[in-house]
Write a structure and sequence with these properties.
four-stranded antiparallel β-sheet, 11% helix, transcription, elongated, five-stranded antiparallel β-sheet, 28% strand
Length: 314
């Protein structure tokens, strides 16, 4: 209370906030010169009456982040001269008189509500044994957002010079994370989601579930890839029904639960329909003299012609 607002604003944003506090039309009657890239003031009277409403984004200073888990686990947080700042979205209006309870001279007063702009980017250090991560894809299949837990799940080494290790995957095609054998699977899944029509008004398209193998260690080696269960959703704007983005959630698959390729069944060499359950006796065909059987049924080998009196069958 009773402190200049500029002490809490990031130095690079003070001019922006100062303009929002000004209530005169002349101060904001400016145009952008597209040829020179400079902002010029209009010489004549403003053609449009300036609204008293205000809406802008700026960076405001915060205190200790340790007790603020909600902020500590999110980005971005800006540092300047040892102070930490977060992005806030301010919406409000210019009021001619100050709010009740404030003893200040009559003047214009800015009344706004500031909302934190928090990106959903959990930091891996605060998560125990991360086993999943999410990515957001554009209509081209490029990664526009990646969960920071991907660094641990995919074993991406950290690089202090370039910042977060997972951010290096941004603007890459999603299927480039998979090994060559599964790259087509991811690409086809993405195309299938993009071509899927909305089932009805205000209803989301049906998600797709697949399993794939991705590179581990941040390189291109196919040795020891990590197997992931992937759920892919396409999100549409509920009002315009226009495409927004595709979200793919990846979950590490337990080795015991990994999908096994189907084993080819051995074609039966027996001309009859099958065996009588538990006794190894043919259900049709020539009458056998003896049949090799155990307490659990057939001995598991191929039929032996010596076990049958007549083996002249097709």
């Amino acid at each position: 209370m009773n402190r200049p607002i500029y002490e809490l604003i990031h130095p690079e944003d003070t001019e922006k906030v100062r303009e929002q506090l000004c209530g005169s039309e002349a101060s904001l009657a400016r145009t952008l010169d597209l040829k020179t890239g400079t902002v010029k003031k209009e010489s004549g009277a403003p053609r449009v009456h300036m609204s008293c409403r205000r809406g802008f984004i700026c960076r405001m200073r915060v205190g200790d982040l340790e007790p603020l888990t909600r902020l500590r686990n999110r980005r971005p947080i800006f540092n300047h001269n040892g102070q930490q700042y977060v992005v806030v979205h301010c919406t409000g209006y210019i009021k001619n008189s100050p709010p009740a309870g404030l003893d200040v001279p009559p003047s214009n007063c800015l009344v706004v509500i500031a909302r934190l702009q928090i990106a959903s980017m959990p930091i891996c250090n605060d998560l125990a044994s991360p086993s999943s991560f999410s990515v957001r894809l554009s209509d081209e299949g490029k990664i526009t957002f990646i969960d920071q837990r991907a660094a641990d799940v995919l074993g991406i080494p950290s690089d202090p010079a370039s910042g977060s290790s997972a951010d290096r995957l941004l603007q890459r095609y999603w299927w480039q994370l998979a090994i060559p054998q599964d790259e087509k699977l991811l690409r086809d899944t993405f195309v299938q989601q993009m071509q899927q029509l909305s089932p009805g008004p205000h209803e989301s398209p049906v998600p797709c579930h697949i399993q794939c193998r991705m590179y581990y260690g941040g390189g291109t080696s196919e040795l020891n890839p990590v197997t992931l269960s992937v759920t892919v959703h396409k999100f549409l704007n509920p009002y315009s029904e226009q495409f927004e983005y595709v979200v793919a959630t990846h979950q590490i698959v337990d080795p015991q639960q990994q999908q096994q390729p189907p084993q080819p069944q051995q074609p039966s060499s027996m001309p009859w329909g099958g065996l009588d359950a538990g006794y190894g006796v043919p259900t049709d065909g020539p009458t056998p003299v003896s049949a090799a059987a155990t307490s659990n049924g057939w001995n598991g080998g191929e039929p032996n012609a010596s076990n049958y009196q007549n083996s002249n069958f097709q």
